[in-house]
Amino acid sequence: MLEIVAMTLDDIPAIMEIEQSSHVQPWHAAFFVEELERPQSHAYVACHTNLIQRRQVVGYVCFWVVADEIQIFNIAVRIAHRRSGVGRALLCHALSVGYQHQARVAVLEVRRSNDAAQRLYSSLGFQPVGERKDYYGGLREPAVLMELEMNRDWRARWGLAMNPAPLADTIKS
């Protein structure tokens, strides 16, 4: 079963394995430690518990909730667990947390060549709203800026008119 729980310092070695295999310009471990210390930051890991009750980190998400906005900074899934719903569960969890904090918009950047991630974000209602030239400097690749308006239509789509539970239910795997 997949669980999404708050990230801890003990998770950082597993997160670094995922980070190194997922990003061309990976964060350093110190960046994750800083995120755990920032009051506006939210950091979660997706975990599977195996037969001997050892928790295996299979993905993570780091985001800020500032005023009425969610800023998603980093999301990644262990290669062996991609396309299994882990990324969707993490993103839905982030949106649910933001919604509970009265967020009305979510933003993120994604490599223009990362079609799989763009499809995932689009399936949740994110729309491309611009590009950041050479955002990924090592690749000289632009980032597509995507935004999700968490408006009445979006809330109705997810059954969130009065209760964030339906979106949170999408993280059960």
Give the SSE layout.
Layout: E1 2-6, H1 12-22, H2 29-37, E2 41-49, E3 55-66, E4 69-77, H3 86-100, E5 105-111, H4 115-123, E6 127-136, E7 141-149, H5 152-157, H6 165-169
The CATH superfamily is known as: Gcn5-related N-acetyltransferase (GNAT)
Across the major sheet, the strand order is 1-2-3-4-5-7-6
CATH topology: Aminopeptidase
SS field, number of helical segments: 6
Strand content: 35-45%
What would you report as the Rg, rounded to the nearest angstrom?
16 Å
Instruction: State the CATH architecture.
Output: 3-Layer(aba) Sandwich
Helicity, in percent?
25-40%
Q: What series of H and E elements makes up the topology?
A: EHHEEEHEHEEHH
- Number of DSSP strand runs: 7
Number of domains: 1
Give unreliable regions as ranges: 162-166
Can you describe this structure?
The protein is α+β, with helices and mostly antiparallel strands and 173 residues long. It has one domain: Aminopeptidase. It is 32% helix and 35% strand. A 7-stranded mixed β-sheet has the order 1-2-3-4-5-7-6, sandwiched between helices. The N and C termini lie close together (6 Å). 31% of the residues are buried. About 3% of the residues have low confidence.
